[in-house]
C-alpha cells in the first residue's frame, strides 16, 4: 500500500518506480517514467521567460505531467474550461503560453509546447519550492456570458484532497479510476487526477464518453467518476459492478441514482459544491429527501432568505461565503437543498420556483428530464419548459398529437402548481442543452423558444 502523499512532495516521494500511474492507448505509464517526464518538462519551463501557462489536454497523464512540471518550475497555472480553438484564442490574453497535447489545436501566434517531449530534453533536480502557494486559475464556462476566472491556491487544493482521502480513501484502496468528466474542471481535477496520484491509484488517460463504454468497464476494482449528464442515460445492465460511483456537477434525479445502482452495481455518491466553494457536502440518495452531509471542517448557516452561508477551508477560513442555494438546515451537519434563489422568479407579483416546476414535471412517467425558464413574450413574461420524453411519453405524444398532449401535461401540473406557474409554451427535445461541465446552458434553452414555429 502506498501512503497518501501531499502534492508538494509527491514527485520527491520514494515510490516503487514500477508503480502504475496511468493506463492509455500507449500502454501503462509507471511512477519512474512520470517523475522523469515531470523533470524534463520542468527543465524546459524553468528556462522559459513565460510565467503564466495554460494547460489544455485531453490526455490526463500529459496534463498531470504539465501540472507538476509547472508547479516545480515556479510557474502559474491556468486551466481553460473549454479546449476549442476559438475559446482558447478568446482566453489567450490571460496567459503567456500554452502546454497541450496533439489533440488540441492552439491559438495562432501563441507560444506553445506540445507533449510528450522528445527523449533528448535535459532534466533537472526537482526541489520543494513555494509549491503550496502557487496560483491556480480555473475558468468556468457557466451557463452564459464570459468565462469566469476562479483563483485557487494549491494549499486550498491540498486541504480538499486531504478531506477526500479521509472520507473515502479506505473504500477506494487499490481501485483503478475511470472517468467521464474532464480534468480541466475542479471536480475532475480533484477526483480523477490529483486524488488518485496522491494516493497511488491508477487512472485512465482518456474519458469514457458513451454509456456503452461505462457498462463495459464496470468491475469491483474500478471506481467511476461521472456526472448526472451521463448517469441519466444509463439503461443497460453491466455484467460487473463498480467499487464506487461519484457524481457531481448538478442535481442527480433519484430515478438516475437508482438506475445507476441497478445497472452499475453502486448507488452514486453525490458531491455538492462548485469551483468557487470546493466541496460542500455529499449524500447517497436512497429517497428524494435524503439529507446532504457537510464535509468535515465546514460550518454552515442560513441568511435571512434561507440561502446557505459557508465557513470553509477551501474558500476563506476566516470569512463567511454567501451562496444562492436555498437550504433547510437539520442540524450542524446535515441539510436539504431546495434549489437556487436566483431561480425563484416573480410573475404578476407571485413567486414561482423554477426548480419545483422541473421536479413536478419529472414526477410524470412521460418525462425523464425538464428545464423551465422565465421567457419574455412580447410585453409579458411567461414560464416555458423544454422536456425530454420517456418512451412512454413519446408513445403518448404520437397517439394524442402535440396539442392534446400539452394540455394533458398542463393538467397534470394543476394538482401542484398555481396557474401562473404552469408553462405556457413547450419544446420536446432529445436532451437539455448543457456545457462540458454538465451545467445547463440558459442561452441555448432560451433559443429554443426564440425560433419561428
UniProtKB/TrEMBL annotation:
Keywords: Ligase. One of its GO terms (molecular function) is anthranilate-CoA ligase activity. Residues 21-283 form the AMP-dependent synthetase/ligase domain. The keyword NAD does not apply. Its EC number is 6.2.1.32. It comes from the Bacteria. It holds the Pfam family AMP-binding_C. This is Anthranilate--CoA ligase.
